[in-house]
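Sample entry as discussed:
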Amino acid sequence: MANKPIVLHLGDAIKYNHGFYNDEFLRRFNVIQATETDRQGFIQALKSKKYGNFSALFRPHFQTGGFMGQWDAELISLLPPTVRIFASAGAGFNWADVDILGEHKIWYANGAGASDEAVSDTALYMILSVFRNFTRSQLAARTADPEIFTATHKLIATISQNPRCHILGVVGFGNISKKLAFKARVALGMKIHYFDIIRADPKEETELEATYHESLDELLKIADCITLHTPLNKHTQDLIDARALSLMKPGSRIVNTARGPILNEDALVHALETGHISAAALDVHYHEPQVSPRLASMENVTLTTHIGGGALDTRINFELNAMKNILAVVGPDGEFVGDPITPVNRRAFEGAA
C-alpha cells in the first residue's frame, strides 16, 4: 500500500465514477487529499514535503481545487521532482502556466473531448440567436405585455436573417470548433471559413468544406459571424479588440464560448452601440463572474453563465479522463510509462532537457 505512487488530490472528492476510482485508480495509486484552503498554506505544505514525493496532481472538478490560485513559477518550482503529470478537469488552462510545467518535465492534461459536444451545441444555439434575435424576442415575451409582444413580433422579422449561406468565421480550429463547423454547415447551411496558427489536415478541410485563411484579419473581413475557440494566454488576451472589430463587416455578429478576456468587452460595447456589430452572444465574460452591466442591458446580446460545457455527461467524463490521464503516464514505481490521453503542453514537455 505504502509503496504505491502517491497522487495528490486537489478539490472535492469523486462524485460520479466510483467504480473506476475504487477498482482501477486506488488499485494503482495511494491518493492523498490536500487539506489547505489558501495559497500560503499550500506553499508551506510543499516546502515541508507534507505530502511526500507524490507522482501526480489530480483535480477532478474544475470548480474546486483552485484554492492556491495561479499555478506559476513560484508554485511549480516547489513541486517534488517525482511529479509526472497534472491532470485536471475542464478544457481551459489559463490558471496554470503549462509551459513552465513542461519545462519541469511535468505533463499537463486537461479534459479535452469531454465537453466538445456540449460546447459546440452551445455555440450553435448562440449562432442562431445572433442571427434570429431570439434574446430580444424572449425578453419581450417575458414582459407578458401584449403591446410589447406585438411590437417585437413585427420588428423581429425586419431585422433577422437565416444563417444559411452566410459565412461563419471560426477563430481557432480545434476539436470543439470542428464539431461546431460540421453542425453549422449540415444543420444551418453555413459556409465555414477558419483561422488557426496550425492549419488543419487537408482531408479534414475537405470533409468539413472549410476554407483556411492565413491571417485573422483576412478572416474577420469576410465573415458574417465570428465564433471564438482559442485558449486564453498572453497572445490571445484582447485578441478581438477595437481594431479587430473594425475590420468586420458592418452588421456582422460575434459569439464567444472560449474565454472572456479574448474579446475586449469595452470595444464590443462600442461596436454594438454604433451598430457596426449587430448582435453578440457570450457564454464567457471578461471579469467573470461579473457580467458587463452595459452588455446585460442590450436586447441584441445573448448572455449565459459559462455553461457551454455544462452538461452532466461533461462532468462525468472530466472526472474519468483525469484519472485515465494519470494511469496512462505514471507506472507502478512512479516512473513515466506513456503519454497522457489529452496532453496540452507537449511542445514544452518534449523540448525540456
